[in-house]
Amino acid sequence: MITNFDNLIxxxxxxxxxxxxxxxxxxxxxxxxxxxxxxxxxxxxxLIGDENAINKIAKDHNISLKGFEIVNEPDQGRAALxxxxxxxxxxxxxxxxxxxxxxxxMQAILNKERGLVNxxxxxxxxxxxxxxxxxxxxLLVTDAAINIAPDLNEKSKMIQNAVxxxxxxxxxxxxxxxxxxxxxxxxxxxxxIDAAILSKMSxxxxxxxxxxxxxxxxxxxxxxxxxxxxxxxSPVAGRADIIMCNDIESANYLYKSLAxxxxxxxxxxxxxxxxxxxxTSRADSxxxxxxxxxxxxxxx
Length: 300
Fold this sequence. Notes:
The chain has helices at 5-13, 28-39, 51-60, 76-88, 102-109, 152-168, 190-203, 218-222, 224-229, 248-261, 286-299, and strands spanning 18-23, 43-49, 69-72, 94-97, 125-131, 139-142, 175-179, 211-216, 242-244, 265-271, 277-278. By secondary structure, the chain is α/β, with parallel strands linked by helices. It has two domains: 5-117 and 273-299, Rossmann fold; 125-261, Isopropylmalate Dehydrogenase (3-Layer(aba) Sandwich), CATH 3.40.718.10.
């Protein structure tokens, strides 16, 4: 079981590096992150974007581009489609967003002819792994970036996406906590009803490869003492590997609280596509961008 990001980097160093296609790569933090990944021997890169701007940023900030392929395409929309082409053709194993609007990036990914969406009814979802100083293992959180107000069916697919990432982190039977404001079913709180149904779906084999329980409040999902005090008898309570949030607001608040207030390291990817996708925020630190690249290399 990979319990921290140092273990993840060590595992990746033992594998042949794969190539990352970076769209609109004219961004200092992104170039620093991909340089660090290449220096660790876990990743190669093709930089797609404004070649003059990429070279200028690298020169101004003393970032070596040695070993990187550069494809000149200043237009953001065309650059995003080229990135998808690199992945679809096997010339790259993962895709990363650089300095372009998320809407343009996602538009290319969702393109029916050149995009990266599976046509088998899958769902794209954001999965973030956190290394938290006060927790004894990596904690996965979904979905802080893509699915705004998922329905029950979408939540079940989001859980399966997160479980697939957890399995690659060598978590044999991921424990999934469907988190709400309270740990009891309340008809006036629809999130608690969804949580109970998802728990039963897991019990009946409709959600596989994991143990799902809910509703659970965040404290009793990750703190065994809190679960004991509230007399919650559950294999998940206090030991969750995955936190399934009710909507994008709750997941986003949790993501940013952990990253900015709890000094947690974070690496996040978009799961459910035909290849891993790194969709970082401009506010994400250079180190968290590097760790997101590492996550994508694991899943590619």
